[in-house]
Amino acid sequence: MKDERKYYIDGSHFSIQYMYQTGYSKMARPHSHSTYELFYIFHGSKYFFINDTVYLGQKGDLIFIQPNDIHRTSSSDELECERMLMNVSNEFIGLELSRFQASFAQFTRSLFRFRVDEQPLIEEVIEKMYRESRERRIGYEACVRSALTELFVQMKRVDVEESNRHAHSDHPLQQKVTEVASYIRKHYEHTLTLDEVAKAVYISPAYLSRSFKRLTGFTFKDYVQAVRIREAKRLLRETSMPIGRVAELVGFSYTANFNVTFKKITGVTPLAYRKQKRE
């Protein structure tokens, strides 16, 4: 019998959680993680918006999210999704994968679609990680690492065998929404309006607003801000430039507005974020 409690191993280096949702739902706000995030879907479906691409995850799919990738989920038309969520750090699995010169960082795809005949094995491996994490019997950490290594191998096989496959759902809006998100990510440092972007991709502003929110869970304004703050976080981590200059480079006209938006999205001020990352 599964519960929806999140189980941790080695602090925050590994966690696993079973989730079952019905009805319409979406993430309260866009976010990213310092770990790899993996969703395996047992039943139903869900939209995943990762960076500038929309994916429809369905039964037998594994959604893979790299550290620091902006993402958000929202319900599909099915309004039901049963899935397992795993977060994994390099420190947790790095040694096992290094034995054959591999790492999760090698993956460039976000959707791994397992064949029907492969799904029972994948589900057995994931169920083992969940069971071992919950029961915590002697040697459970080693069992989880072993199962996670096997899952990696299965993902690698899909990656190699289907390297030329561009796996998306057939939703008619998906390509257009991905085009909009890509445009925003390429021009985030400029002033962006809904009317301007709609004109650039040849759709009406009202249609863009509705479609973007439906498939990504973001409003147009929220996504623009999320992209800008993601780039700001990178500049704060990797450079020593003044906060005002960072704000300017990511598209904010006023530093005060940047500070408020940054704290709203991250929970801390830009200065506090920089200090945290340098400690």
Automatic annotation (TrEMBL):
InterPro entries: AraC-bd, Homeodomain-like_sf, HTH-like, HTH_AraC, HTH_AraC-typ_CS, RmlC-like_jellyroll. This is Two-component response regulator. GO terms for molecular function: DNA-binding transcription factor activity; sequence-specific DNA binding. Residues 178-276 form the HTH araC/xylS-type domain. Transmembrane segments: none annotated. It holds the Pfam family AraC_binding. It comes from the Bacteria. Keywords: DNA-binding, Transcription, Transcription regulation.
